Amino acid sequence: MRVPTINGDGPVRLAPLEPAQVTEAYVGWLNDPVVTRFTEVSAGQTLQSARAYVENTVTSPDSALWAIHFDGTHVGNIRLTHIRRRHARAEVALIVGSRPHWGRGIASAAVVLVTDFAFASLRLHKLSAGIFAPNVASRRCFEKAGYFHDAILKDHAWFEGAFCDVLQMARLAPPSSPSSPHAPTEANR
Ligand SMILES: CC(C)(COP(=O)(O)OP(=O)(O)OC[C@H]1O[C@@H](n2cnc3c(N)ncnc32)[C@H](O)[C@@H]1OP(=O)(O)O)[C@@H](O)C(=O)NCCC(=O)NCCS
Prior knowledge:
Elements: E1 6-7, E2 12-16, H1 24-30, H2 33-36, H3 47-59, E3 64-70, E4 73-84, E5 89-96, H4 106-120, E6 126-132, H5 136-144, E7 148-159, E8 162-172
Parallel strand pairs: 5-6
Antiparallel strand pairs: 1-2, 2-3, 3-4, 4-5, 6-8, 7-8
Helix pairs in contact: 4-5
The structure holds coenzyme A.
């Protein structure tokens, strides 16, 4: 789906991602085993495969994809997938591919921006994120954005020579949100 630019109060901005923005540096993130160790990104990514992924995602009605910019530099991506209108839910995932940018609060800010957008503009009710249990930094990002522990998927991913659990974290729309059963409608206003 086509998405708007989302500006926050700080240096993190989310901008629609286009296939042409996939550079060699971008492909380098996807082929960096330190970046991808907690993800399901396949090894051996190329400019062609990465551009095809972006093209498929931005043209899918069930997905939304943004580049994460920090002070104007493209440092990663964040996406919504499995957008289910009938059930008002979607899944969130992100990658800060530029390792020198880790630990600056960028992922935390991006999760907050996309979460607010999903509830306010897409009128979703529930967002979920699947996080490899050892991925402490990612868990912390989502906790800080108000996500709770929704479920544990036992031995759900292969991580460095053994299966690991995947933690499903989730957040529900606030009561004032358009999707909430508590929000005023024409019928109950
Ligand atoms: C995980 C990832 C998203 C974190 O991005 P980031 O921009 O560095 O995260 P932030 O700077 O917002 O930090 C998030 C929190 O995790 C903490 N943290 C960061 N690294 C940590 C680590 N190794 N151990 C424990 N906590 C850590 C930070 O201190 C911060 O918490 P705080 O604000 O309470 O201090 C990023 O490293 C990344 O994209 N990694 C590769 C792909 C990936 O794992 N994606 C997530 C899949 S669900």
